[in-house]
Amino acid sequence: MALIFFIMDGLGDLPTPKTPLQAAKKPNIDRLAAKSITGMLHPIAPYIVPGSDTSHLQLFGYDPFIFYSGRGPLEALGIGMDLQDGDVAFRANLATVKNGMVADRRAGRISTEEAKKFEKYLSMRIEDVEAVYQQSVEHRGAVVFRGKGLRGCVTDTDPHRTGVEPWECHPTDESAEAKKTARITNKYAEAVRKKLAGAPENKGRKKPANALLLRGAGCYKKVPYFEERFRIRAACVAGGALYRGVCRYLAMDIILVPGDTGDKRTNLKAKGKAVLKALEKYDMVFLHVKATDSFSHDGDFEGKKKMIERIDRELMPMLIKSSAAMVITGDHTTPVSVKEHTGHPVPVLVHAKGERCDKVKKFDEISCAQGGLGNVRGKEIIRIIQNILGKSQKYGS
Amino acid sequence: MALIFFIMDGLGDLPTPKTPLQAAKKPNIDRLAAKSITGMLHPIAPYIVPGSDTSHLQLFGYDPFIFYSGRGPLEALGIGMDLQDGDVAFRANLATVKNGMVADRRAGRISTEEAKKFEKYLSMRIEDVEAVYQQSVEHRGAVVFRGKGLRGCVTDTDPHRTGVEPWECHPTDESAEAKKTARITNKYAEAVRKKLAGAPENKGRKKPANALLLRGAGCYKKVPYFEERFRIRAACVAGGALYRGVCRYLAMDIILVPGDTGDKRTNLKAKGKAVLKALEKYDMVFLHVKATDSFSHDGDFEGKKKMIERIDRELMPMLIKSSAAMVITGDHTTPVSVKEHTGHPVPVLVHAKGERCDKVKKFDEISCAQGGLGNVRGKEIIRIIQNILGKSQKYGS
Prior knowledge:
Two copies of one chain form a homodimer. The first copy, chain A, has helices spanning about 20-25, 25-35, 50-60, 65, 70-80, 110-115, 175-195, 225-230, 240-250, 270-280, 290-295, 300-320, 380-390; strands at about 5-10, 35-40, 90-100, 100-105, 125, 130-135, 140-145, 210-220, 235, 255, 285-290, 325-330, 345-350, 375, 395. Chain A has about 400 residues and is an alpha/beta fold. In chain A, the strands form two sheets. In chain A, strands 10-9-11-1-12-13-2-14 form an eight-stranded mixed sheet, with helices on both faces. In chain A, strands 3, 4, 5, 6, 7 and 8 form a six-stranded antiparallel sheet that branches.
């Protein structure tokens, strides 16, 4: 038996007066729910507000309090960079600074193609540290510092708004390593500004790409591989860099799907096809759709509802037809009324041949609260998956 | 008030399309369920696959991660051997070895009477260690090593199948104690083979008892007694050596019941009578029936279903009539479709005069998932029992 672990990002919601899951017409998911056992999932711990990074780590069985050290390394891995133990990585934005103030955090929403031209200015040596920049989509990229005695405990240079100066980077602990990393970061940001100021590629740009804003510092450390820990061969079908990054961090295989843009336009059928093919070779295929969360952050109820309906129409029939086992849930609640992550639990559905069922007939926040699984903790999900796949190990005899 | 803590081994199951508990006609248990509060029990932790030994420890309030050190000592205690701190004990099988290979792991299912004749060859001194063997039922027994500097961290010599050599014993940690224990074990196994090879009792046996296979090594250490920790005077009515062993480990009293064979033929009425008598003297009587698990391991749905029906018919009326409080559950799920323990929760029922009830009317895996207790952790059971018996201690004032 193979299993699809399907996460719709930010799926959970609050009623206004219905939640998007309640309002959406989703006959396929609901029919599946009627043949499943359901419950409410607390991704990290009850009423802790999860990040997408910490939540996915926990749902894959990696306690984020042990295995999470900032988003930077996960993003860097997600865009294909190779990391070594001790590397410090940041997420980076090409930005426009005018009179010392951040004027545009995205350098006029610079295109991927345009942004690529600046990549060559952004890798350099600072003291004994090698800084390597890699461009990803539009204004986004990641920078990795490689050298002796670095540490991820430093603040952002990205002020997260316009009209203010880029922040100076500060150490957040007393270690010599954090102090060195902050110093390197500030020197790097300054060197980048000088190089970009003279870049001929900025000629004619209304909003020149003349600064790099850094955030989410973290120090990479190799972790025990997913297959080694759980005896499950796993692959990842996800459009977003972060999700690919989490999976690379755990040494899952990444399947790249043409048309999987990781946003609202993503090609769901292409993703579904890739999942079906991967089921032949892997014990578990992790499938991730980002757009449910993006609509939530935009406060767009109709958008989220219609995205759920599109998933039900375009993706679910393929998944159901595969007769693979399924675990379907979200990584956290992002209510359209709040536009941010909250600590509310998320509905979860477990379906497999021979598994127990309950009496719940619909997959939503209210119905699944009556489900047979009750309140499930994030760390329990991987054990449920191991039980379904016959990969558990008995404790005792 | 006195309480019966009734565990049906491996009781939990999966639907095919009903579970044995759902399929069984069990009017007495169901009538009791209607007057009880129910829930689903995770014996160790959610979706961790329990052994019978670790699970019973946890259900008695002893965290197995602290108090469990292998099955050997529990089995040795269960067949009546006395252990001292630092003793290492194994479960042992009389076996037939031919041309160096294990030909029969049970020496032709040797009878208890025949096996008893070999006992005298199996206790001896190895270096400064005293090895003591005791026979139990058929090919089964236990061996205890008593001496300075021993440790239970060693592997089995029982290869758990035929057609291969008995395994050499290896230490599983780097300690000098584990190394010594492995050396003693290998010397003992060799000495046993020499003694049994010349035993006149093997003359005429098609499958001579010419080797002893050892497994489940563990080091005994006295633990705080059950009555001391929980202020509950407890007795045990169980046929299987392991369950008696766990109870002796915790210094509960063991009540031996004639006809309680610990298998499918066990005399349930005799067990019931013993429980009723013990209720006069003890706060809690632990009642264990093994056969539900045995039928599960055999993949015998009808057998398990009929065993439940027999329990309902022969045992439950006596227990209910006693008007004792009751906690009824299993120590783990053993689905007949899987034939091994799994990590699924088990239905649990708590009944006592004056306790809360819920709306659940049937005692099974699906109904009790709607129960008022919700998801119960193994470690919580003893606290529930303490509350019922008025033996809890307030935390704070």
